[in-house]
Here is the input.
Amino acid sequence: MTKVFIKSIAKTLFVLTIGITISSLVFAHGENKHENEAADFDAVTTEFGSYQPDLEPTKTIEISMADTMRFSPAMLTVKSGDVVKFLVSNEGALQHEFVLGTPGSLAEHAELMIKFPSMEHEEPYMAHVDPGKEMEIVWQFSKAGAFEFGCLLPGHFQAGMKGIITVE
Here is the structure.
């Protein structure tokens, strides 16, 4: 009788452990913001540009993401000083994200996501987009250079889900 009880408890603990593990992977990026939901971000300045809560876009760029692990378009050109509203849509069946950065910062972050897939983060230069949904990012590019965007979900960036932004 005691062995049966112990086996029953062991099975229950196993099922709970699996459920918690799956839940943590599914919600790896925290609560997603969906269409028309405003995000509250503090001002931030990076080497690839900046965000202020009161930025007014001077240009709108539509970007779609697909399960082929590609962005469309994958190459963009903007001018230094442009305030760009990115309208990012997920045309696939998988969750994808659009993250702005430098080539080095994105590659480093993508590697961290493989090691720590349940890492949670939310920044004004990131959009975590569920299938069939869209989000927007407003970002000001303040200096010339070559920057990137990518999907940093485990395996997506490594499969080629990235693009280039040339700031003139």
Observations:
- The two ends are 75 Å apart (CA to CA).
- The chain is about 25% helix and 35% strand.
- Residues 1-30 form one domain.
- Residues 66 and 92 are 5 Å apart (CA to CA).
